[in-house]
């Protein structure tokens, strides 16, 4: 997800999206550990999306 897309979402939507992405990330890591996945760069992009959403949530909590 892009930062501009993340800023448009509400806090509840961000929490929901964060939990979905974390689950997808864990599943992908597990699948990659068993047998290499076709595109391992998916792991990196998911990890970065999780970080972007978590950062936006913590930023909103501080305001």
What does this structure look like?
There is one protein chain. This protein has a single domain, classed as Helix Hairpins. It is elongated, with a radius of gyration of 13 Å. It is an all-alpha fold. It has three helices and no strands. Keywords: Ribonucleoprotein, Ribosomal protein. Belongs to the universal ribosomal protein uL29 family. GO terms for molecular function: structural constituent of ribosome. InterPro entries: Ribosomal_uL29, Ribosomal_uL29_CS, Ribosomal_uL29_sf. This is Large ribosomal subunit protein uL29.
List the helices and strands and how they pair.
Elements: H1 3-8, H2 11-34, H3 41-62
The counted number of beta strands is: 0
CATH architecture: Orthogonal Bundle
- Overall helicity: over 70%
CATH topology: Helix Hairpins
- Helix-strand string: HHH
Task: Give the gist of this structure.
InterPro entries: Ribosomal_uL29 (IPR001854), Ribosomal_uL29_CS (IPR018254), Ribosomal_uL29_sf (IPR036049). This protein has 63 residues and is mainly alpha-helical.
Which structural traits does this protein have?
mainly alpha; Helix Hairpins; 63 residues; Ribosomal_uL29_CS; Ribosomal_uL29; structural constituent of ribosome; Large ribosomal subunit protein uL29; 83% helix
